[in-house]
Amino acid sequence: MIDQKGHIYLLDMPFLCTFTSMEKLNHKLAITSWAVEDRPREKLMLKGKQALSDAELLAILIGSGSREETAVDLCKRIMRDMDYNLNELGKKNIEDFIKNYKGIGEAKAISIIAALELGRRRRASIAKERKQIKGSNDAFELLHPKIADLPHEEFWVIFLNRANKITSTERISSGGVAGTVADVKLIFKRALEHTSSGIILAHNHPSGNLRPSQADITLTKKMVEAGKVLEINVLDHVIVTDMGYYSFADEGMI
Q1: CA-closest candidate to residue 173, choices 148, 197, 203
Q2: Alpha helices in 130-183, H assignment, sequence order
């Protein structure tokens, strides 16, 4: 029951709350009621982008939350569900966000996905500028944006000249969750076409497992032996996951 003064009565007892006080309670949930230095946008301007957490940066993207949660609280929940891993966040699609998070509609989901894609492309651009491969980490940085997040396996080859400068980076095959086929003859055919002095093999493990399978080991040995005949050095075989990589060269497997 509600009287003319706006008091709410429950079971004939006055509930100590008015519409005015309820509005104040709801207002406390709004980011605009926070101290200026604690609001994500203002915090970024005052303290710099490094001062913000992933959730706060995400909150700036979506702008607002729901009636039950501020944008920051909503984004903290999203990051908690992703185990605080931006790589996991990058694998989500529009439907995942809309279905699982009240306050995230199509426009906000698209904003999140677009921002993460820009981040991925930025990393790819940095890797692209690195013309020379000096070690396994260079190969990983080049290929991570291409294959780390894929739900299936792909096999790639980096073709190098005598100075270990990249002449081409190409996908050789695409398979399923458990594996993909790498044709030795096709790989060396492409290497000869590029007049390559060396090549680096690479494929991803969608499972996240960094250890090579027996098939990976057998293929690598076969490639190394074939390369010796053609005087094309197989410099490394890199297994890429979203969290890191395994290098046959670093582990003394080549």
Answers
A1: 203
A2: 136-147
Whole-angstrom CA distances from 111 to 94, 172, 191 are 10, 33, 41
Number of other residues whose CB lies within 10 A of the CB of residue 98: 14
Burial class (CB in 10 A: 0-12, 13-18, 19+), 128: middle
Tokens 């073709």 correspond to 159
β-bridge pairing 154-160 and 7-10? unpaired
Q: Write the CB contacts of 23 (distance below 8 Å, at least 6 apart in sequence).
A: none
Residue whose pair of structure tokens reads 């100075």 in the numeric block: 163
Q: Quick check: 18 and 58 in contact, CB under 8 A?
A: no
pTM of the predicted model as reported, rounded to 2 decimal places: 0.56
**Contact indicator for 166, 131 with CB cutoff of 8 Å:** yes
Q: What is the mean pLDDT of each run of 10 residues along the chain (254 residues)?
A: 51 44 46 65 90 94 91 95 93 94 95 92 68 93 93 96 94 82 94 97 95 95 97 98 95 94
Q: Burial level of 235, CB count in 10 A (0-12/13-18/19+)? A: buried
Give the whole-angstrom CA distance, residue 234 versus residue 188.
Answer: 10
Report the chain's terminal Cα–Cα distance, integer Å: 80
Helix (H) or strand (E) holding 10: strand 7-10
